[in-house]
Amino acid sequence: MTLAITIGVLTAGAVYLILQRGMVRVVLGFVLLSHGVNLLLMSAGGAFRRGEPLLGRDTGAAMADPLPQAFVLTAIVIAFSITIYMLALAATGESDDTEDAS
């Protein structure tokens, strides 16, 4: 239950920040959204009700599925690259308001 509430709070905060006007707030919203999605993917794997995915000596039914963990690792790399790209856009896009219109 705590995990579901945490995912909901992160998603709600992300939606609020993405709808703001500033680019840095939008970037922070995407970071929060990526954390929420990572938690959702990990909870879908059922790691809390099973043993270790590869190190345990149990039967195959008792081991956790390693596929959601691989998805989370991939999502972390993608979210990091998108964050860096959006921060670069935010840094270069703020210089337009200093030019003189006349």
General description of the model:
With 102 residues, this protein is mostly helical. It has one domain (1-45, 63-90). It is built from three helices and no strands. It is elongated. 5% of the residues are buried. The mean pLDDT is 83.
Largest sheet properties: none
* C-alpha end-to-end distance: 59 Å
Strand content range: under 5%
Mean pLDDT across residues? 83
Query: What general form does the structure show?
Result: elongated
The percent range for helix content is 55-70%
Radius of gyration: 19 Å
Please give the domain count. Answer: 1
Structural class determined from secondary elements = mainly alpha
In total, the number of strands is 0
Element pattern in H and E: HHH
Transmembrane segments: 24-49, 70-92
InterPro entries: CPA3_antiporter_subunitC (IPR050601), NUOK/Mnh_C1-like (IPR039428)
Membrane topology: Multi-pass membrane protein
Protein name: NADH-ubiquinone oxidoreductase chain 4L
